[in-house]
Amino acid sequence: MTWAMNELGFLTRKTYDIPTGAVTQVIADVDTTLVSDAPPGWTTPAGGGKHLITDITIDSEGRATLVLGPSHLSDIAGTATMIRTAIWTVYLDAIHQVWTANGYATGGAPSYTYTLTNPVSITIRDADGRLLQQIQATRASTSGALQPSDSFPQSSYTRWTVMQYGSDNWSPPVWSTSSFQ
Questions:
Q1: pTM for the full model?
Q2: 151 Cβ contact list (under 8 Å, min separation 6)
């Protein structure tokens, strides 16, 4: 589905990556004067047309690695600044880890300046997909996007949950939580 109209006539458009089927862009409350592919007869309703664009960068498996929300005005250190919220996800498949972080982008595409807002969430699973650890850690620098080359030593942990399982694969986990300040 590339186009949808809700009961009030507001339009949503989705764009897909053909090889993976992943969504790569969503425009909520479409302004039909800004697009060329609106279905015949579909127009922006009165009071609509905010044209809220969310861009999604994906990896070769169609998993989202960066989600940039719609542009909006925000107060950054006392200055009104146009930003886009950013959510990064790093997949470290070889070691069964997924890292996620939030932040924002300033400037314009394709040369955004990224700022990460700590903490970074780290999920570690075993080869069978069982959850082993959930970690919240701070990255030393908040400048730039979350990268696979980042490192998170135990000294950067602010929260750490470790799951332990019984000797068979069917035992429920025993939760053990340690917090760091």
A1: 0.91
A2: none
